[in-house]
Amino acid sequence: MASEYLEHKLSLLPDLPGCYLMKDINGKIIYVGKAKNLKNRVRSYFKSSHEGKTARLVSEIADFETIITSTDKEAFLLEITLIQKHRPYFNIKLKQGHSGYPYIKITNERDPQIKIVNTLLKDGAYYFGPYPNVYAAEETVNFLQKVYPLRRCNGFQNRPCLYYHMGQCLGACFKVVPKEVYDRQIKRIKSFLNGNVGHAKQMLTKRMQDASAKMEYERAAEIRDLIKYIEITVEKQKIISHDNTPRDIFNYYMDKGWLSIQVFFIRQSRLMKREKRLFPIITDPEEEMVSFISQFYKQKNQLLPKEILVPNSLPTDVVSSVVENVPVRTPQRGQKRDLLEMAGKNAQLVLEEKFRLLELDESKTTGAMKELTDAMGIPEGHRVEAFDHSHIQGADLVSAMVVFVDGQPNKNLYRKYKLRTVDHADEAASTREVIRRRYTRLLKEHAEMPDLILMDGGTIQMNAVKDVLENELGLDIPVGGMVKNEHHQTADLLFGDSDTPLHLDPKSQGFYLLQRIQDEVHRFAITYHRKVHTKNSLGSRLDSISGVGPKTRNKLLRKFGSLKKISEAPIADLKGLGISETVAQTIKFSLSKIDEERKVVNYQDKKIIN
């Protein structure tokens, strides 16, 4: 049985191809595997019964991590690299120098050959691969030997070999083949294995169609399969590149004040290593990334690569200046761009896993609640109720309340309020109204009171809450204020009579719980406000215009469907509905600010997303 921690991680695995690295209690990698679907494959270790080596492996797994790839083939190739690098105890195949999968080799000889090999040697030959599908690689070599022949015989024997008569050997068996002839063939083979197979596929497709037309269906099927094998063999992938430039790739993902960074190390034409970092930040992520890259090479005495790749949000000239003028580039297309995007996607998955693990881990969320109450110097509690207000230019003023119990949101206890406060700018009045309505009702129902009340705001809202609780209702409930910084991110917690925030450790569980509460109550308030505003905006705006009655309103809505279209319609179109010119002009004037209001709504949407 997997531990609770592993159970939570298993539930968060993506339905994507990639590699998984199993670790023991000391964090040492003990097994590397690949999967078409990481979720299904990794879960199978813990959800099925095993015997022998696999059972022993599972018994020693204390943690795991994943690296997602774009394709199953990339997962195969990355697995090879990771096994050769880490040499895990439980991997009995794919040892250093032997991938377990074949390569296609063009030998370094006077009369070169093309062949299938299993071992990489430093012999000056050209190597392509490795190829996970052995049969596909063999069929591809057979095809190349027929289309771009080199030497298939054992060498000079004073007479032509059988392969020469079949057109699969250039004739080294009985004559001197010029070097430039071999060079031309090798150039074509290299181009083919690097993915330029369009001409060959067209030729084979024509042969397949001809065979089918002649009702030679078995031959047509053979050619069809050959086309498929060629596609499999030369399928583009990012894990192994076609140049030897050592390069480091940096990408990141930011959410809820946390920055997730992925660093890919490309060495010897392949992805050799991945490092990841997670930490909270206050400044812009771009500024943090430049600083991180600078410190990355200085603190670790990391060898500088020949090239650094970064996303286009980072200033490449600045990054280059802080890493001793190593060329820093943002690729726009091709394999490098794909690798950069893959690093970004891994960064996003790592951060999302962190957040969701915190939510799933009940012991940590319960502990987070204790961290909050300890920081405030109040008795340990279980239930938090948090409030936020929302409006647009004073219209449709609403408030919303969320409830967290032992660090977990309980959506069954959420409440929404349409506020009656006339002055939308009076935050204190809005706060008094919703607090009065909420806790008067709880008193009447003899219902459970919260252990802590949090307001999305500062001193004004906190004082308004305490005024109603203490002076009107006679309740003694601790009240805190959740303050955001200029980046609209949770920054501090206010409590007591002082304006000085408590400054929770941004790496603590308590701070993360505060972030979740503030984000959730803001989301809930804005979502409710949108519904109210959408419902009221059409009818109420038209009803408030002088000269527009129920019949005229219904005509307009049936004809145009939205305030925006009514606002943009010519007066002649309005008059066509039987509306007088005076009323039509009044309607146009009253709706003239609809675009401005829409911009405000869009701005609030962006703030929610960010």
TrEMBL record:
Signal peptide: none annotated. Keywords: Cytoplasm, DNA damage, DNA excision, DNA repair, Excision nuclease, SOS response. InterPro entries: GIY-YIG_endonuc (IPR000305), GIY-YIG_endonuc_sf (IPR035901), GIY-YIG_UvrC_Cho (IPR047296), RuvA_2-like (IPR010994), UVR_dom (IPR001943), UVR_dom_sf (IPR036876), UvrABC_protein_C (IPR050066), UvrC (IPR004791). It comes from the Bacteria. Residues 249-469 form the UvrC family homology region profile domain. Belongs to the UvrC family. The UvrABC repair system catalyzes the recognition and processing of DNA lesions. UvrC both incises the 5' and 3' sides of the lesion. The N-terminal half is responsible for the 3' incision and the C-terminal half is responsible for the 5' incision. This is UvrABC system protein C. It comes from Lentilactobacillus raoultii. The gene is uvrC.
